[in-house]
Specification:
The protein has about 240 residues and is α+β, with helices and mostly antiparallel strands. The protein is about 40% helix and about 15% strand. Helix 1 (about 5-25) runs parallel beside helix 6 and helix 2 (about 80-95) crosses helix 5 (about 145-155).
Length: about 240
């Protein structure tokens, strides 16, 4: 696949993640947001625009915003509440990629009192051992930086946070790794919900075994890169013109 300058490539990758999330039914209306630190400028961020469905965006639609969410480059507006959460996580936690969705199975777990993703029952979930956090409070829609600060504090050192009554956020250092994590979080939540719907008890491995599997998968992230590139080839095949600059 052709490579471009870092900023253009970031816009293409952000577009791919949004379109792929829509294909996988991980989106919700024209809500939720994916954001990336602008390559070469940690004070600016790329984010999807207000009002466009994720399945229709192109790299030319991506907006560049500052830490206050003000659009400094782009032809679209950004939802006023969009960056109150994202900016605080980018800045406070030094995350280059922040993906926030209300995807069905992960969000389902946030509706249950005290529910957690079982990191010792499913191999896919074991990859997240030691990487998951929970925001047990709920302050309504994020209408100010205070809500974003509270969520950022709840994340701690985690890469994945389940937000009670709300949804999920997955963070990372590049889009391929982070989107791969988003995909496997939802798959893990899906099979857990299906397994628990039988009324049976989940069979767990030991803490040591779960950590061992997490270390195995964490040390072999080439699969994440290959997965993301393969998914972009699927877009090339099925949605010609999606990456038009």
């Amino acid at each position: 696949m052709e490579r471009f300058d870092p900023v253009t490539q970031a816009k293409i990758d952000l577009t791919a993640a949004l379109r792929l999330a829509a294909r996988m039914n991980l989106n919700e209306g024209v809500c939720n947001h994916f954001s990336m630190e602008l390559p070469g400028n940690p004070d600016l961020f790329l984010i999807n625009p207000q009002g466009l469905h994720w399945s229709e965006v192109t790299p030319a639609d991506m907006c560049t915003v500052n830490a206050d969410g003000k659009v400094v480059e782009g032809k679209h507006k950004v939802e006023p509440t969009a960056f109150f959460i994202h900016s605080r996580v980018h800045i406070a936690k030094h995350k280059k990629v922040v993906l926030h969705t209300h995807m069905p199975y992960a969000t389902a777990l946030t509706l249950l009192d005290g529910a957690e993703l079982d990191l010792r029952a499913n191999q896919n979930a074991m990859r997240f051992y030691g990487r998951v956090g929970y925001d047990r409070d709920y302050g309504g829609a994020a209408l100010d930086t205070g809500e974003g600060d509270r969520i950022a504090n709840a994340i701690g050192d985690a890469d994945v946070i389940f937000m009670q009554h709300h949804g999920i956020m997955v963070c990372g250092d590049n889009m391929a790794y982070t989107f791969d994590d988003l995909y496997y979080v939802e798959r893990s939540c899906m099979v857990q919900v299906l397994a628990q719907s039988t009324g049976g008890k989940l069979k767990q491995v030991s803490e040591a075994q779960a950590k061992y599997v997490a270390d195995q998968i964490g040390g072999e992230r080439q699969q994440s890169l290959l997965h993301f590139e393969a998914l972009k080839r699927v877009l090339d095949r099925d949605e010609p013109g999606w990456s038009k600059i």
